[in-house]
């Protein structure tokens, strides 16, 4: 027979992160050695050259900063102009679509009242001729509007780039 221990034994529960004590180290402290820097006399010509270079760099920086700010303003204006132009163009497209849809509904309602095949041919011919003329006029309007938007958007950019290149030259 085997001995059965009536009292249960306690098992040790391990935590997910065991506590480990790290050794404590200290960083050694050193004094920085003191070096004597030799006093160098910078030649006047070199000093003058360095001062002129710094002044010239500052001037060039200011010019570039002004040119960049001007270009940024022009680009923002061009985007605003383009946005307005695209909105206007979109409205014109919607207006055109509405006019064409109304014309087709009118044609369909007139077709319902037709009594003979000759009237169908006559009505269809008139409708197609009218739609062809309307589409031609609408296409011309949309093309003119697109050209206007494109020129109003790009002209300020073109002028700014031209003036900037002239200033740089």
Number of strands: 0
List low-confidence stretches. Answer: none
Cα gyration radius (Å): 42 Å
SSE string, helices as H and strands as E: HH
Strand proportion: under 5%
Distance between the termini: 109 Å
Question: How is the topology of this model organized?
Answer:
Elements lengths: L43 H69 L4 H52 L1
Helix pairs in contact: 1-2
Question: What would your notes on this structure say?
Answer:
The mean pLDDT is 84. It is built from 2 helices and no strands. With 169 residues, the protein is mostly helical. The radius of gyration is 42 Å and the shape is elongated. The chain is 72% helix and 0% strand.
Task: Identify the notable features of this structure and list them briefly.
169 residues, mainly alpha, 2 helices, elongated
At a glance:
The protein has 169 residues and is mainly alpha-helical.
């Amino acid at each position: 027979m085997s001995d059965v221990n009536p009292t249960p034994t306690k098992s040790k529960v391990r935590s997910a992160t065991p506590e480990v004590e790290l050794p404590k180290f200290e960083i050694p402290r050193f004094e920085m050695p003191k070096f004597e820097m030799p006093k160098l006399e910078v030649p006047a010509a070199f000093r003058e050259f360095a001062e002129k270079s710094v002044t010239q760099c500052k001037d060039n920086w200011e010019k570039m900063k002004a040119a960049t700010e001007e270009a940024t303003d022009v680009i923002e204006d061009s985007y605003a102009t383009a946005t307005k132009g695209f909105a206007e163009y979109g409205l014109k497209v919607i207006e055109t679509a509405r006019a064409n849809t109304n014309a087709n509904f009118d044609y369909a309602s007139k077709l319902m009242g037709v009594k003979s095949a000759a009237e169908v041919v006559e009505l269809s011919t008139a409708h197609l001729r009218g739609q062809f003329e309307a589409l031609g006029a609408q296409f011309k309007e949309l093309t003119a509007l697109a050209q206007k938007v494109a020129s109003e958007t790009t002209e300020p950019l073109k002028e700014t780039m031209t003036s900037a290149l002239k200033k740089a030259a």
